[in-house]
């Protein structure tokens, strides 16, 4: 596979996606810093900025824009690397997707800046933003469908040319990720196109609040798997190569991705557990399905540690844990995702708490939840993406990750980890004490319970502010390093110097991969059935037994 | 499959089954399921619709109370509630405008209150003290001010 020549035209497309992504990090991190400082009572915002405006920008730019752009930049590069250069047609479609997404992003961002859309990234009805906010978000989704179609075209083109052959693991996983994304975004697209846009223009008087929330979370949970799967691609495919090992098992890797498609979608009710209007039994069913989706993550953990151990032993490690010493901790391409994996251990455990029906009522909408997603998407996924940036950008631009840049990357990773440790631990504990999320500075008229949130060490809003400040520094370093790697790092003069796109080979002892895993019709069919089982009856009920809807309201 | 792989998968699956059984048992046998009331109401006619035309606290038994409450930007009506220690309180809630949260710190009360829907939640207050009631769903510019108290004597 490594013989495939790099296509400069594809590199340009990838770099465009990545660049928008890092601009989003720049703005989003400034918002994050200010949020932490405001909640800690360290600063007060000037009157022309509203806390919730910042929070909307932070959520949209980091959770939706940065992630999607980075993922597309990475996946386009990976399919071009493993399945050959894109056809001119597929590449043009990739560019159309890029521009549609970008127009949408700009449109929504302007509305947030103008203060016309302080409804947060979840835009719960009946809070009503400017119609252009919803239109912008719709364009982001539609653009991502167009870009996704380009990758699917490339994959099916490869399979036609190579009939009978097993597709490259990277291409297979990309396809799974895009399929997951298309199936889940249909929900939010329906809600935005048929509920929010007509209602925000005044063409419809009222909106079905519960239905809109349900369609949002039908999308909202698989959204987190859309972030996670590309990180898993790196963990399965690229990390083995970086540490000098092999992919442990091709079939286990593919199977876990199939399971993600099946079980990550029909589970949105676990975000609506404390809501009226959804019968408890249906909530419970989706909680059960939520537990199922833990399985492929545990499989991934197994596969990773198996790779680490096998590689360590091949390098001469002894004893039960000797292999832990053989890992390349001073290589940022490994170290950054590795730190992310460590954070994922408490992150995953916390996720089980969140999903557990009644434990959920302890933490629902408290700062615990914010702590939780900063140590899941905000660290395992983000540090993996940052770790990727250190080799992907010089690979795409024909430059080198010099030892000095590697060191800078190590420092950046350590700062992010330390900042996140303080911020997320404080958030988890404050949440258990009852501190709410999505709330500006408040002592609730010096209520004793609320004042306790300013005492102690970890149970202290100032610790959130402190962690946030360290994180902010790490984010600014990352943005700087991105542009440095893109434009100023030394050029690679020849093939030997060139930065590699690490693609692991499958270990010899691994079993052959069953062909059914590549039969997408089967898997899409099953997921549709699961979705229908989990949603048909409660959603029909929401529509037929709907209360009078809500008129648009602006409360900021 | 490798043997260690099988062991791992069996263990992890067993663990997941255990979690599922635990939540199922708590929800159904112990009736600790999350608040999921199904009644609806016209969100624009809350003031005219019983029981919300007359929000307030009513004693309905020895140490048992019913609270009918509306949530609106940025307040709870009625606010500043008081109960004797050991009271069981049944809350009936709805929103007159956007989605709000109803959370009582240091208890297990935590529910979404949506316009168009009536939410119900019951809690026994044993320990005396002043409990902080707050809105934990973003509802607008004054969201961080939306709070009241429950005093248990
Ligand atoms: C500079 C680094 C960061 C800092 C200082 C930071 C800080 C914060 C703080 C303090 C909040 C909570 C605000 C509240 O609930 O009132 C928050 C919310 C949030 N953060 Fe971050 N964060 C950072 C990076 C990230 C990253 C990298 C992501 C995801 C990729 C992310 C995703 C989110 C999301 C989705 C929310 C919730 C928004 C909402 O409730 O609507 N953050 N962040
Ligand atoms: Cu979820
Ligand atoms: Cu509120």
UniProtKB/TrEMBL annotation, chain A:
Annotated keywords: Electron transport, Heme, Iron, Membrane, Metal-binding, Respiratory chain, Transmembrane, Transmembrane helix, Transport
For this protein, the parts annotated as crossing the membrane are: 16-38, 58-80, 92-114, 134-157, 169-197, 217-239, 251-269, 284-308, 334-353, 373-393, 414-433, 453-483, 520-537
Question: Pfam families attached here?
Answer: COX1 (PF00115)
Q: Which PROSITE patterns match?
A: COX1, COX1_CUB
Q: Give the membrane topology.
A: Multi-pass membrane protein
Domain Cytochrome oxidase subunit I profile, by residue range, is 1-483
Gene3D superfamilies linked? Cytochrome c oxidase-like, subunit I domain (1.20.210.10)
InterPro entries according to UniProt: Ba3-like_Oxidase_I, Cyt_c_oxase-like_su1_dom, Cyt_c_oxase-like_su1_sf, Cyt_C_Oxase_1, Cyt_c_Oxase_su1_BS
Compartments where found: Membrane
Which family is this sequence assigned to? Belongs to the heme-copper respiratory oxidase family.
Protein name in UniProt: Cytochrome c oxidase subunit 1
Organism of origin = Ammoniphilus resinae
From TrEMBL, chain B:
Start and end of every Cytochrome oxidase subunit II copper A binding domain? 47-153
Quick check: keyword Membrane in the entry? Answer: yes
Stretches that traverse the bilayer: 7-28
| Record-linked Gene3D superfamilies | Cupredoxins - blue copper proteins (2.60.40.420)
Catalytic activity, per the record? 4 Fe(II)-[cytochrome c] + O2 + 8 H(+)(in) = 4 Fe(III)-[cytochrome c] + 2 H2O + 4 H(+)(out)
Q: Where in the cell is it found?
A: Cell envelope
Instruction: Tell me the InterPro entries matching this sequence.
Output: Ba3_CcO_II_C, CcO_II-like_C, Copper_CuA, Cupredoxin, NosZ/Cyto_c_oxidase_sub2
Q: Keywords of this protein's UniProt record, alphabetized?
A: Copper, Membrane, Metal-binding, Transmembrane, Transmembrane helix
Pfam families assigned to the protein according to its UniProt record, in alphabetical order: COX2 (PF00116)
> Could you tell me what this protein does?
Subunits I and II form the functional core of the enzyme complex. Electrons originating in cytochrome c are transferred via heme a and Cu(A) to the binuclear center formed by heme a3 and Cu(B).
The answer to whether keyword Amino-acid biosynthesis applies is: no
Q: What is this protein called?
A: Cytochrome aa3 subunit 2
Grouped into one coarse class, the protein's main location is: other
- Source taxon at top rank: Bacteria
């Amino acid at each position: 596979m490594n013989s495939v020549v790099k296509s400069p035209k594809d590199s340009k497309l990838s770099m465009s996606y990545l660049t928008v992504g890092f601009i989003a990090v720049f703005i989003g991190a400034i918002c994050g810093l200010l949020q932490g400082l405001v909640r800690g009572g360290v600063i007060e915002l000037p009157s022309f900025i509203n806390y919730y405006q910042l929070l909307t920008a932070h959520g949209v730019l980091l959770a939706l824009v940065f992630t999607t752009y980075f993922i597309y930049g990475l996946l386009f590069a990976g399919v071009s690397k493993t399945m050959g250069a894109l056809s001119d047609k597929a590449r043009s479609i990739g560019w159309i997707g890029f521009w549609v997404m970008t127009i949408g992003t700009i449109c929504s961002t302007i509305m947030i800046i103008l203060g016309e859309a302080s409804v947060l990234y979840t835009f719960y009805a009946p809070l009503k933003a400017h119609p252009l906010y919803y239109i912008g978000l719709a364009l982001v989704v539609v653009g991502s469908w167009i870009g996704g179609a380009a990758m699917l075209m490339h994959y099916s083109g490869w399979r036609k040319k190579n009939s009978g052959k097993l597709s490259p693991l990277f291409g297979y996983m990309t396809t799974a990720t895009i399929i997951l994304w298309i199936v889940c975004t249909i929900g939010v697209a329906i809600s935005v196109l048929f509920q929010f846009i007509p209602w925000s223009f005044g063409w419809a008087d009222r909106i079905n609040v519960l239905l809109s929330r349900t369609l949002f979370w039908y999308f909202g949970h698989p959204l987190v798997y859309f972030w996670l799967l590309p990180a898993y691609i790196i963990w399965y495919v690229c990390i083995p190569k970086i540490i000098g090992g092999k992919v442990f098992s091709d079939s286990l890797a593919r199977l876990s991705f199939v399971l993600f498609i099946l079980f990550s979608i029909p589970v949105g009710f676990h975000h609506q557990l404390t809501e009226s209007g959804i019968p408890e039994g249906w909530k419970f069913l989706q909680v059960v399905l939520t537990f199922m989706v833990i399985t492929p993550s545990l499989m991934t953990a197994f596969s990773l540690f198996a790779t680490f151990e096998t590689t360590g032993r091949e390098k001469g490690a002894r004893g039960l844990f000797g292999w832990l010493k053989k890992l390349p901790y001073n290589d940022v391409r490994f170290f950054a995702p590795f730190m992310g994996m460590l954070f994922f251990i408490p992150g995953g455990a916390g996720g089980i708490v969140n999903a557990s029906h009644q434990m959920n009522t302890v933490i629902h909408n408290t700062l615990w939840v914010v702590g939780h997603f900063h140590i899941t998407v905000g660290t395992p996924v983000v540090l993996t993406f940052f770790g990727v940036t250190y080799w992907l950008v010089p690979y795409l631009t024909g430059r080198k990750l010099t030892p000095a840049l590697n060191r800078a990357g190590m420092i950046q990773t350590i700062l992010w980890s330390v900042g996140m440790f303080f911020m997320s631990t404080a958030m988890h504990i404050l949440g258990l004490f009852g501190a709410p999320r999505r709330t500006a500075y408040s002592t609730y008229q010096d209520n004793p319970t609320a004042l306790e949130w300013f005492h102690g060490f970890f149970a202290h809003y100032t610790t959130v502010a402190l962690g946030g400040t360290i994180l902010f520094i790490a984010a600014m370093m990352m943005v700087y390093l991105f542009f440095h790697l893109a434009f100023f790092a030394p050029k690679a003069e020849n093939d030997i110097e060139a930065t590699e796109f690490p693609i692991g080979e499958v270990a010899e002892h691994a079993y052959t991969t069953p062909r059914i895993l590549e039969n997408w019709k089967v898997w899409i069919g099953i997921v549709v059935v699961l979705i229908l089982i989990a949603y048909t009856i409660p959603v029909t009920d929401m529509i037929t037994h709907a209360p009078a809807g809500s008129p648009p309201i602006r409360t900021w | 499959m490798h043997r260690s792989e099988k062991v791992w998968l069996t263990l992890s699956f067993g663990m997941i089954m255990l979690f599922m059984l635990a939540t199922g048992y708590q929800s159904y046998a112990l009736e600790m399921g999350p608040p999921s009331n199904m009644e609806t109401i016209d969100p624009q006619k809350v003031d005219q619709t019983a029981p919300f035309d007359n929000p307030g606290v009513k004693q309905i038994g020895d140490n048992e109370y019913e609270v009918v409450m509306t949530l609106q930007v940025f307040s709870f009506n009625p606010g500043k509630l008081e109960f004797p220690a050991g009271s069981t309180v049944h809350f009936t809630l709805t929103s007159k405008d956007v989605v709000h949260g109803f959370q009582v710190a240091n208890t297990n009360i935590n529910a979404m209150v949506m316009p168009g829907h009536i939410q119900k939640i019951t809690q026994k207050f044993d320990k005396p003290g002043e409990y902080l009631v707050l809105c934990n769903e973003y509802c607008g510019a004054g969201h961080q001010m939306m709070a009241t108290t429950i005093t248990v004597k």
